[in-house]
Amino acid sequence: MKLRFLLSPSLLFLTTAAAGAADVAVVGVFPPSKAVLVIDGDGPFTVPVGGSKGSVRVRAVDDRGAELEVDGRRVSLSVGSAPIRRDPAGGMRVVIAPDARGHYVAQGAVNGASVRFLVDTGATAVTLPLALARGLGIDPSLGQPVRIQTANGVVLGRRVRLDRVSLGEMTLHQVDAILQDGLGEHALLGMSFLSRTDLRREGDRLVLTKRL
Fold first, then answer.
1. What is the three-class DSSP state of 132?
2. Which residues have C-beta within 8 Å of that of residue 11, sequence separation ≥ 6?
3. What pTM value is reported for the model?
4. What's the pLDDT tens digit per position in 55-75?
5. Residue 29 sits in which domain range?
6. pLDDT digits (tens, 9 = 90+) for 106-125
7. Which of 2, 77, 119, 169 has its CA 20 to 30 A from that of 66?
8. Does any domain span residue 12?
9. Where are the alpha helices (DSSP H) in 91-162?
10. CB count, 10 Å around CB of 54?
11. Angle at Cα 103 formed by Cα 101 and Cα 107, nearest 5°?
12. 29 Cβ partners below 8 Å, 6+ apart?
């Protein structure tokens, strides 16, 4: 039996709008038959596909995570993604816990394709490594050339506008971005996204609320 667990403290949580809705974390999977869940801080519970724990039903499991039904709403949660919360008022809120190094890393998407972001309030814009941009079908040659001041000096990049940038269930449209070489493994979630949210700290967590 193949087991996948994530040892990072960054887990994925979802709170639905319904009364009594659950906070759910997928902390491990036994593909294709079982998911390991933490619900409202209790557990872990090993729940088989088709089985339920409280208001949470496991519909499917694969190597990356689980498809759940929470209070009647379907959601796919991957192991180790950013914490996500849906506000009762209808706005989207994302809660990101720090990883073992104190960095805020969150699973998101660019134009519908999965991207791992490092939250960086010092970056003026969402910033994508050139190789990642090409893998997403973005042609750097179509972007506007820009000079970027970094800790290592001035580097050249390309400014583009992304149709959609998502963090969990929060999606913003027409987001300015920089394509830049030498960034490392993560894209940077910079201020062209963050400035369109209300950003605050709650303890050691970052809370982003989409402005309606």
1. helix
2. 25, 26, 27, 38, 80, 83, 97
3. 0.63
4. 889 999 988 788 888 777 777
5. 4-81
6. 888 999 898 989 999 989 99
7. 119
8. yes
9. 130-135
10. 16
11. 125
12. 3, 4, 35, 36, 61, 62, 63, 64, 65, 66, 79
